[in-house]
Amino acid sequence: MICENCQQREAAIVVTQVNNGHQLKKHLCHECAANIHPFHVEQQHDTLHDMLSTWFGTPTWQKEKQPTKKQTVCASCHTTFEQFLQDGKFGCSDCYDAFRDHLPQLLKRLHGGTEHIGKMPNAVSEKAALKKRIELLRQTMRTAVEEERFEDAAKLRDEARALEAQLAGGETS
């Protein structure tokens, strides 16, 4: 059969168009079909492959080998981050710097956070509590000055100075 469009080549494709319930069939050659219809025969495999891949994923036999991640290695002791994860120990003190980018994620996953909020030695915790109390007094004093309660502000200032002297002298009560 001859192409109904160009009247020169052999018709290889039947294009069916439906308009208002009426079917119109045309027998076309590859070239005319490619010009009239946006769907190309050569694209059929790629389009079908892409569609199936989206639905079912790429078949295992077609998957390319995943590129290996560049391993983080300590320059001093040559411990890799994977070795650290396996052993749970750093090779040297420079490992802290070498694995700096990975540690916050790891600590958050293991401990629920990246900040140490556990117990401190008594002397350190007393000093920290004293510093916190001084800061709170200073903040309350600023608020009192803003509200023009100058007598209260003076008392707070004196109390903060006494605590600062105690902190500087090393005595804690």
Automatic annotation (TrEMBL):
Gene3D superfamilies in UniProt: UVR domain (4.10.860.10)
Protein keywords: Coiled coil
Residue ranges constituting the UVR domain according to the UniProt record: 131-166
Pfam family, one: UVR
Top-level taxonomic group: Bacteria
A molecular-function term among this protein's GO annotations: copper ion binding
Xref: InterPro entries: UVR_dom, UVR_dom_sf, YacH
Name of the featured protein: Nucleotide excision repair protein
